[in-house]
Write a structure and sequence with these properties.
- This protein is of the alpha+beta class.
- It is built from 17 helices and 27 strands.
- A hairpin with a 2-residue loop joins strand 8 and strand 9.
- Helix 16 packs across helix 17.
- The longest helix has 20 residues.
- The chain is elongated and about 80 Å long.
């Protein structure tokens, strides 16, 4: 999203109750992008790239399509939009009086293919009308275009973007960006906008291209291709466009390609729709390296957030571990994912054994961030220690469950990571003061301690040198004992701040569920620690549960002020709700393994929270996506889809299925 587009959105939504002005939302519509490029298809059929973090090319900034007969009838809102089967092919139906224009979209490498087909009784002289604005090299100005036989090329310096049609490219017209007087006007500018008279530069010094193309046998295909001029010269790019136009000259060819690339799971996999949606969402967010962005970047100017189009090692490593454990149970078609993730973490580890705040997913290069104390002079307060612990947990689990060719490199990275954890563990057994998982506080957090406990427990189970296992087990015992400092009497506090307990409830502390279970696999858990965990999970779920007439789930933490807009109370978060379901499931199994009859209640709570995250649940979009947050009226907000809750949901389904507790009855959150 570039400044002109952001200003237009600001003008439209500056006083909106649930929309933050100046953002490019993906809370409606769906994505097609399992081959690297990430393209959003709105319910009006408009295309927009979120591809830059994944392929380092910017692509389409905004677009609009319609059908022209005696006038242009722009698509205004689909009557239906869905994925075709298990694939990432998006089918969008645009209804008119007695005919329908059906749009099919799929990314193919760095290309995006859109097929339009008419059915019913369309006018004989119908033509496709389109207007597409590109932003090569992230620019919306200082652009130009070249007109080829059946394609238009838009370029700035390195990036050259191509648009081609399968029939006859007609009425090509450029349009320069909005002028200053339009930008400062209080009214938003229509797209495409009407101008009184074309200036000399309008046709060619423009990244926005309007065009027409006739339908042949009721259909027409449009291809956009993003290219780095060094990697794919002009001739090769135009040949690639021609090849794609001829190959995908009907919807069946596009559907066939989608089926070939689909991440299909077995028919008997429990909650198959949710599992398929989770794999699709995580694939959408993945770069060729295997690393993932947190979510589509909806706030590129950081007006209301810190950006989402980066790889955080916390989120990514947690996702990797959830995928690994789910794959063991469900037999998922993702064998190569685990090794790619392990290799990425080995390649991006810093010399001191830690990982930086966030990186670019394709290259692993350092990305803009605010928690890089391990790279600069300063205290660890501006370091997120839980990120290193999360990576260590995955690497240890990977060594235990996979026969990877890179086992030696992984073990070396793991040993260095344990050294980094040891270096940031204070004398009292708690991690030193650092930033929290939500990146909005500093202190000594229960969640950070939980990730250390989980990491040490996982290393103690891993097939590594006995000395490293023994050291990790000893450190796990130290961290578990140190949690006493955070105990309030009925739950673990959010943090210690200047030596004082911040006793607010925090959903991230639910990581203690899996951490205690990991510890129990290598050492005995005392009755006192078990009872405290039960009390903590119960108290946290009870205290953070929110239910309105539209949605039900967990808030992030008590008194959370973030992104409320006109809402008085904290919003419900899908990652918090999924964390609650997973923590209750982990607790249930821990108790069941010890013959504790409180396991049944824990499993019931897990199913109750999971229900809100399954298809038809109150927190799930019709696309199958889980947004990061939801307003009380059900309006989704923030990054959509967000990878972390999708992986948590997948892991919880697998866990409950594995222990025989994934059933429909008693699927109500019990609070008595």
């Amino acid at each position: 999203m570039k400044l002109r587009h952001a200003l237009n959105d600001y003008k439209r939504h500056r006083d909106h109750d649930t929309k933050f002005p100046g953002e490019r939302r993906s809370t409606t519509g769906v994505f097609s992008g399992t081959d690297g490029r990430l393209v959003h298809v709105s319910r009006t059929g408009a295309l927009r790239d979120y591809s830059d973090p994944l392929v380092e090319l910017s692509g389409i900034e905004r677009s609009r399509f319609g059908v022209e007969t005696d006038e242009v009838r722009w698509f205004a809102g689909a009557s239906a939009q869905e994925y075709v089967g298990d694939s990432a092919v998006v089918e969008t139906a645009h209804e008119f009086d007695d005919w329908t224009a059906t749009q099919y979209d799929l990314t193919v490498g760095r290309a995006h293919v859109t097929r339009f087909e008419l059915s019913g009784d369309p006018p004989d002289d119908a033509r496709l009308r389109g207007v597409v604005g590109f932003a090569p090299d992230g620019r919306e100005g200082q652009l130009a275009n070249l007109l080829h036989e059946n394609a238009v090329e838009v370029y700035h310096r390195d990036e050259h973007d191509y648009l081609g049609v399968s029939t006859d490219l007609r009425d090509v017209a450029g349009q320069v960006p909005e002028r200053f007087d339009e930008l400062v006007s209080p009214d938003p500018v229509a797209f495409p906008r009407a101008t009184d008279a074309a200036t000399y530069e309008e046709p060619t010094l423009s990244g926005t291209v309007g065009f027409a193309a006739p339908f042949e046998d009721g259909g027409v295909t449009v291809v956009s291709l993003l290219a780095d001029s060094d990697e794919r010269p002009r001739g090769a790019a135009l040949s690639r466009v021609d090849d794609l136009l001829s190959r995908y000259d009907d919807a069946s060819a596009l559907r066939h390609r989608g089926d070939e690339r689909a991440l299909s799971v077995g028919e008997n996999v429990p909650n198959r729709r949710a599992v398929t949606a989770d794999l699709r969402a995580l694939s959408l967010l993945s770069a060729s390296s295997g690393a993932r962005i947190a979510g589509p970047d909806f706030d590129p100017f950081y007006e209301h957030s810190g950006g989402y189009g980066y790889t955080w090692f916390r989120d990514d490593a947690e996702i990797s571990r959830f995928l690994l454990t789910a794959d063991r149970v469900l037999g998922l078609p993702i064998d190569d994912w685990h090794a790619r993730s392990a290799a990425f973490y080995c390649d991006t580890q810093l010399e001191d054994g830690t990982w930086p705040h966030r990186v670019w997913p394709r290259s692993g290069a350092l990305a803009p961030g605010w928690a890089n104390a391990r790279l600069e002079a300063g205290s660890d307060a501006d370091y997120q220690a839980d990120q290193t612990a999360s990576v260590a947990s995955f690497l240890a689990t990977y060594l235990r469950q996979c026969d990877g060719e890179n086992a030696d490199a992984v073990e070396t990275a793991l040993e260095r990571a344990v050294g980094a954890l040891d270096a940031t563990l204070a004398d009292d057994g708690l991690p030193v003061a650092s930033q929290n998982a939500w990146e909005n506080m500093q202190g000594r957090f229960t969640h950070t301690a939980a990730t250390f406990l989980h990491a040490y427990g996982a290393v103690a189970r891993a097939p590594v040198e006995a000395s490293l296992r023994d050291r990790a087990r000893s450190q796990a015992e130290t961290v578990l004992a140190s949690l006493d400092r955070l105990w309030t009497g009925d739950h673990y506090a959010l943090r210690l701040a200047d030596g004082e307990r911040d006793s607010r409830l925090d959903s991230s502390t639910l990581a203690l569920g899996a951490a205690h279970r990991e510890y129990a696999a290598v050492a005995d858990l005392s009755d006192e620690k078990r009872d405290r965990l039960v009390a903590h999970v119960e108290t946290t779920l009870d205290g953070l549960l929110r239910e309105t007439g539209s949605v039900r789930g967990l808030a992030r933490f008590e008194d959370d002020p973030w992104r409320r807009r006109s809402q008085d109370d904290p919003k419900i978060w899908t990652v918090s709700t999924a964390w609650g379901a997973n923590a209750a499931a982990q607790l249930g199994t821990l108790l069941a393994d010890l013959g504790d009859d409180r396991a049944a209640r824990a499993y019931g709570r897990a199913r109750g929270l999971l229900r809100e995250l399954l298809p038809e649940g109150s927190l799930v979009q019709s696309s199958g996506y889980l947004p990061e947050q939801v307003f009380d009226d059900g309006t989704p907000d923030c990054a959509t889809p967000l990878g972390w809750p999708h992986a948590l949901r997948l892991a919880t389904i697998a866990h409950l299925a594995d222990v025989g507790e994934l059933r429909a009855e008693n699927a109500v959150v019990q609070t008595d």
